[in-house]
Amino acid sequence: MTFFYAFLIGGLICVVGQLLIDLTNLTPAHAMSALVVLGAVLDGFGLYEPLIELAGAGASIPITSFGNALVHGAMAEAEQHGIVGIITGIFEVTSAGVSAAIVFSFFAALLFKPKG
What we know:
There is one protein chain. It is built from 6 helices and no strands. The protein is mainly α. It has one domain. This is Stage V sporulation protein AE. It comes from Tumebacillus lipolyticus. Keywords: Membrane, Transmembrane, Transmembrane helix. InterPro entries: Spore_V_AE, SpoVA.
């Protein structure tokens, strides 16, 4: 059932993003930003972690999990370090993913040549 829930929840997140692009005047960048905000709001209300437990990668891979990570890290560090923890928590939780994306993109650019 784990694979089914991952497919269902991940697919629904993608459908929401596609509908935002198709049915509104939002650009793909705006739709992606809306999904990040949606993930942040869901985590703020404590609803995103149960979604990750249910769907696994179906909820932790889409862009909504970035909003979840931002809020989750900020809230966890704010409990320990106060207001300063809000800023440091955001960077601490998301820095590994952003750094990995930069490094892997660099190596992909070295290995492959775009056609144009």
